[in-house]
Amino acid sequence: MDKKKIKFPYGIPGHNLSEVEREIPADEPPAWPVNEKLKYVGKPVKRYDALAKVTGRARFTADVRLPGMLFAKFLRSDTPHAKITRIDIRRAERIPGVYAIHIIKDIDGNYPDVKYAGQAIAAVAASSLEIATEAVKKIRVDYDYKPFVVDVEEAMKPDAPVVFEKEIEAKEDAGDVGVTYEGTKASGNLRGPTTSSFYGGPRGDLDKGFKEADMILEHTYRTQVQTHVPLETHGMVVDWKPDLVTVYASTQNTKNFRDEIADYFEIPRSQVRVISEFTGGGFGAKHSAGIYGPVAAILSKKTKRPVWLMLDRKEEHISAGNRPNSIHYLRIGVKKSGELTAIKQVSHGTAGVGLGAGVGRIVQAMYQCPNFTTAQYDVLTHAGPGAPWRAPGNVQGAFGLEQAVDEIAYKLRKDPLDYRDIIDKSEIRKLERERGAELFDWDKRKAPGSDKGVLKKGMGVAQSTWPRFVHLDSTAEVRLLNGGGIEIRSAVQDIGTGTKTILAQVVAEELGVPIDDVNVLIGDTFFPNGPPSGGSVVTGSITPAVRNAAYKAKMQLLEQVAGKWKSDVSNLRIADGIITDSKDSSKSMTFGDALKGMRTGQIIAVASRSDDYGGFKQEWGLAYGDLGSVQFAEVTVDTETGFVKVDRIVAAHSCGRPINTAQVKSQINGGVIQGMSYALYEYRAMDKETGMMMNTGVDNYKMPFAMEIPDIDIVLIEDYGGRSSTDAYGIGEPANIATAAAIANAVYNAIGVRIYELPLTPDKILKALKKI
Amino acid sequence: MEKIKPIDMKFCRFLKAKNPFGTLEGGSNDWYVYGDANTIYWCVKSTGAAGPDNGLVDPKRCIPGRKCYRGRD
Amino acid sequence: MHKFSWYEAGSVEDALAKVNATVSEIVGRKPNNSSVVFKAGGVDLMDLMKEGLVNPETIVSIKSIPGLDKIEYDDKAGLRIGANATLGEIENNEIIKEKYLALHQAVAEAGTAQLRNSATLGGNLAQRTRCWYFRSIHHVCFRKGSGVCYAQHGENEFHAIINNSKCASVHASSVSTALMAFKAKVVIMDSEGKKKEVEIGDFFVHPETDEKRENILKANELITEVVIPPVTTGTKSHYIKYVARESHDWALADVAVTLEMTGGKCRRAEIVIGAAAPVPLRLDEPAKALEGHSINEKLAKKAGDIAMRNATPLAKNAYKIPVFRAIIKRAILKAV
Asked: Is residue B29 part of a domain?
C-alpha cells in the first residue's frame, strides 16, 4: 500500500504540545490541527437527535408496532435450583388470544436444570401483553426442588450445594465438573484462578519484593453486586419472513445480535437484519441477543407474525446482568520512600451461574511495582448471570487499590497526590492531578476526622487507568447524492452516548459543510459493520473510518469540480459550504451546486478503521497510552445518623482528541453519578432463604435522583498522539472507575476511620464510628 | 500472557465471549480468548451461561469431546 | 395485572353499597373472586395489582365523589381534611403550614410531586406495608397467614426494631406519624350511613392482633375525613424523615414532635416515630421526660435515649437505633 509521511500534533496544549511525523496510508486525509483551529470538531455541538428524544418522536424498540404483531412474555422460575418434572400448558393454551407457547429444552429434549430464580422456562406469544402475562400465570410447573446457595462465601464452603454438579458428558475425554485455569480439576463452585491478563502474567519475585519492603499493607476489600438499570430494558421485535428476518433490537452491538440470531437458527447471516435506531442505554449488558432474542424469533417463526418481547424492570434486575461482587485481598510492600516493592492480589467474586467475576487489571497496570501476582477466582452461585458493566472488574479493583494507596500515603505522612507522583509514571495523570487539585481546592483538605461537630467534611482522591482499545471491524460509508444530500451509513449503534452527533461533526468538518446538511443513518446491519458499544471503543474506532470515507468521497467530488474548472484538485478548498480555487479567485461554487453537477447519481466511499499510525501495542487493537483519570470527591458525613452526602466531584479526564466536548462531559457526569450510586446506594438484596432478589422495584433498588447529584466539575485535557485520522478515543468507562474509591477516601478523611466495604450505607458508617 | 487461538483450541462454534475490549467473535473473525477474569461467556444455542448439556460454558470445556460441541465448519 | 371492571361512584353511599371487600381481605386471592374494592388515588392499589397480590374483580373509584376533598379550619373545631384531599393539596395549604407545621413537613416529604398530586390522605392511611417480603408474590409471609416472617433472618435492613418478633414490617405512611403527634381522629362511615371517630392510634392494627390487616377498616366502611384538634398558640411542632435518598424515598426512620410551650417550659409533649414498628409508635415515656422542663440539648438527647431503650434490632437494622436517637433529639430541638 502506498504510504505518505505527514506531521501530527503531539502532546498536550498548554503543557508539552509538539509534532510527530507518522507514515500513513496514502489515501487517508491530512492531519487535523488541534481542536482550537477546527470548526465543528472539539466543540459542544448540539446532540443530533436531541429534538427527536425530547419530543418523544424517537422510536425505541418498545415503541415498534407492526401489523399483526404479537406480544410475548416469559415464564420464569420462582426457585433458584430445581429439576423441572412437568410443565402443563393446557390451561394457558385455551386462553383466547394466545397464539403460541415455546418451552425451552436442552440438548436431550428435556427441560434444562433451573439454576437461578428468574431463569426463563417458557414464553407465550399473544395478541396483547396482558393476555400473554395472564397465560404465563396459567402454566403449571412441577419442580423437584434442590438445595441452593446464593451467597459467595457460603458457596465457597466444601459442603455447599454445587451449581454445576453434573459431569460434562464427553465423547473423547473423561470429563469432570470443570477444570481450573491451571488445568487441575475444579472443586465445587470455585473456578480459576486467572493469573494473567492481556498486560501479561506475574512479574518479578514476590518474596524478594516483600523482603525489601519497610512496610506491608494488607486488607480485604468488598464490593456488592450491582444490577444494570438502563432506562430501556432489554428487548426486541422480530419479524420472521422466509427470506429475511428483521429484528428491531435494543442493543449495544447490532452486528453480534445479527450473528447470534443467524447462528442460532443456522441460517446465513445475510438473512438477518438488525435495526437499532435508538437504544436507551446498556452499560455493558446488551452485547448479546440473550435468551429473549432467539425465543422471540422462534415465536415469530412459529406464528408467522411479528413478535414484541421486552423485559420488565424486575426481569431486567434478576436475569439481564449484573456487576459481580468481589472479595478483594491486597498485600502491598512499600519502602520508606514510598516505592512499591510487591503487590499480591487475590480475589473471589460471583457472576452467578456464569464466569467473569474478576477484579480487572488496574492493580496490575496503574502503578510502578516490579513484583506482582494476581489470582482471581470465580465462585458460581445460584443467581442471575453477570454481564459486562462499564469497566468490568476494574471498578471493583479500583475500590481496593485506590483506598490502599490512600492509606499508604497517610501512613507515610504524604499528601495522597504527592505520593502518587512517586509511584505513578503517567504524564497525563500527573497533569490531571495538578489541574484537578487546583479546581478542587485540594489544599483546603484537613487532617482525617479533624472536623469538629456532628457534620464532618472530607476530601478524597482516586484515579484510574483504562486501555485505549480499537475495534478494527469498524466501517463507515459516506454518500454524496446528486441533487443534494450527504449520508453517513454504518451498522454502529448509538446507545445514548451521542455517536450520531460525533459522526455528523467529523463529516461536516471534513467536507467543510454545515453540520445540519449531514444525515446520519446508523444502527442497521444492512450498512457496513460498526464496532460494539463496549470497551469505550466506539469513538476511537468509527470516527477515523467515517472521516476517511468522507475524505475519499470529497476527493472524488473535487476531482470532478477541478475537471470542470480546468484546475488541479490540490488547489481546491471547501469552507462553509463553498468550494473555491486557491489559484483562481474567480472560481467559486457551493457544495450543493457541486452535488447537482455530479456525473453520477451518487458518490459512495467506504473506509474502515486502519491500524494505528505507528502501529498498535498489541496487533489486535490495544493502542499505546491510556485513558487516565483522576477524580476528587468532597463529602459531608453526619456522624450521628451515618448519612453521607457527596457535595462535589471534580473529574479530570483525557480521551485523546475530544470530538464533542458537551457529550464528553455528559458521559463523565453519567459515569460519576453511576459511580456515586455504586458507592452509596445500589446493591442486590438477595434473600438467602429463598434465593430471590428482594429489591427489584424502582423504589427499593435505590439509585440517585436529582437531590443526590453532587456538583460535578470537569477538567478535560486534550491529549494528541497522532494515532489516527481523528486521534479520538472514548470516555464511557474511564468516567466510572475511580468515583467510588474517591468517595470512600473522602469518607475516611471526614471521619478518620476507613471502611473497606461498599456500599457506604449508614449502617457501615455508624459501625465504623462504633455507634452500633 | 495467556493467549489462546481458536484454531488451536477448536472452540465450539456457539461459544461467545465478551471481554473488556469487545465481543469476541466465533466464526467470521479470528479471535482470542485472553486469560482474563472479566470475560463473560455464553452459548448461542442455550442462550446462557449453562450450555445445552446443562454444563458450564467455559472456553476450557467448550472443545471437542463435549456432547453439545459443534465444530466451526 | 388481571382484568377488572371500573365503577365511578357518585356518592359515599353509592360507593359503600357497591364494595364488598377491603383490599387487605383479598390479598392472595386468585382472580375471578367477585371482589369489589375502593380506589382513591390508586397509588398503592396499582402496586399491589401489578405484583398480582390483589386481583379485584371491580374497582370502585371514589376519586370524583363531590365534597370529599375539602380542607376546613376552625379555631374551635380544628382542622378537617377530607379523605380525598390529595397530599399535594395538603402540602400547599397555608393554614396547615402555619398551625400544623410537622404535618406540612411530613406531607411535603412523602413520595414525589407527581405522586402527591395523585395520592389522597385516605389512601395514604389505608396503604399496605412496603415490606419486600409482603410485596413479593413468591413469599407467603406472616402477614399472608403462613406464620413465617422472612425478615427475621433475612434482608431486614429496612424493617422494624420495636415490637418486631412476629412480623417486622413497618407501616408505610409517614404522614400518619405527624397526624398521630397532633392526635388526629379518623372519621369512618359505614354502609348504613353511621359515622364514627377513631383516635388514629386506634386506627392501626398491630400484626400480633391481626396479621392480615393494618387498620380497623371493614369492607362496609370508608374513611371520609381526618379531624385534627385545634392547637394552642404555644404549640410548636417539627417532623424529620430520615431517608437514604433525599429526592424520593420511603422513611428509614421518621419522627414528629409537638410541644405545648408556656413560659419557656414544655407543658405537654407528643413524640411519634414511624418505620420503627409495624404501626406508628407514640412514645409516652420520652414525652413525659420533657414535660415540666425547659427544653435543652441534654433533655432532648435523654428523650431519644429513652425511646430506644427497649429496641430489639434484627441483624441488619441496628443502625436505626442511633438514627432514631439523633432525629428525636433534633426534632425536639427544632420544634422549640
From this structure: yes
A191–B44 C-beta distance less than 8 A: no
Is residue B10 in some structural domain?
A: yes
pLDDT at A617: 86
Same domain flag for A483 and A454: no
Among residues of chain A, what percentage have pLDDT more than 70?
97
Mean pLDDT for C196-211 is 97
A179/B44 touch (CB, cutoff 8 Å), yes or no? no
Smallest Cβ–Cβ distance between A687 and the set C154, C250, C326 belongs to C154
Residue B39 lies in a domain: yes
Q: What is the mean pLDDT of residues C170-181?
A: 98
Contact B36 A264 (CB under 8 A): no
Judge contact between A298 and A366, C-beta under 8 A.
no
Contact A151, A103 (CB under 8 A): no
Closest CA relative to residue C179, chosen from C92, C110, C263, C267: C110
Task: Supply the DSSP symbol for B49.
Answer: S
* All cell numbers assigned to C255: 419522627
* Dihedral sign from CA coordinates of B46, B52, B54, B55: negative
**Do residues A704 and A651 both lie within one domain?**
yes
- Asked whether the beta carbons of residue B48 and residue A532 sit closer than 8 angstroms, the reply is no
- Please state, in angstroms and rounded to a whole number, the distance separating the CA atoms of residues A12 and A525: 38
Number of domains in chain B: 1
Give exposure, A151-182, as e/b (b: 16+ Cβ within 10 Å). Answer: bbebbbeeebbbbbeeebebeeeebebbbbbe
In a domain, A133, yes or no: yes
- Domain match, A523 and A582 both: yes
Nearest neighbour of A708 by CB, restricted to C139, C158, C247: C247
Q: Do A641 and C327 touch (CB under 8 A)?
A: yes
C252 interaction partners in chain A (CB closer than 8 Å): 762
Cβ separation C246–A708 shorter than 8 A = yes
Report cis status (omega within 30 of 0) of the bond before A193.
yes
> What ipTM is given for this predicted complex?
0.97
Across the interface, whether the CB atoms of A171 and B49 are under 8 A apart is answered no
Nearest-by-Cβ selection for C245 from A708, A771, A772: A708
- Residue range A624-655, pLDDT digits in tens: 989 999 999 999 999 999 999 999 999 999 99
Calculate ∠ Cα C161-C165-C168, nearest 5°.
55
Whether residues A461 and A476 fall in one domain: no
Of C1, C132, C316, the CB nearest to A695: C132
Q: Which chains touch A (3 or more CB pairs under 8 A)?
A: B, C
The nearest CA of chain A is from the CA of B1 a distance in Å of 4
Distances (CA, A) of A346 to A21, A326, A373: 43, 10, 8
On whether residue A328 sits in a domain, the answer given is no
In a domain, B11, yes or no: yes
State the average pLDDT over residues A440-465. Answer: 97
- Calculate the alpha carbon distances from A282 to A158, A313, A489, C24, C313 in Å: 37, 13, 22, 39, 39
The predicted model scores a pTM of 0.96
Instruction: Assess whether A737 and A634 both reside in one domain.
Output: yes
Nearest Cα to Cα of residue A683 among A402, A323, A233: A323
Sign of CA dihedral C269, C275, C281, C285: negative
Chains that touch B (3 or more CB pairs under 8 A): A
Boundaries of domain holding A296: 64-147+234-310
Cβ-based contacts of A733 with chain B (< 8 Å)? 20
Helical packing angle, A416-423 and A394-411, nearest 10°:
110
A631 and A732 inside one domain: yes
In this structure, the answer to whether residues A665 and A576 fall within a common structural domain is: no
Region of A737 (left: φ > 0; alpha: ψ -120 to 50; beta: rest) is alpha
Residue given cell 413560659 in the structure block: C263
Res A619: pLDDT: 77
Contact A349, A397 (CB under 8 A): no
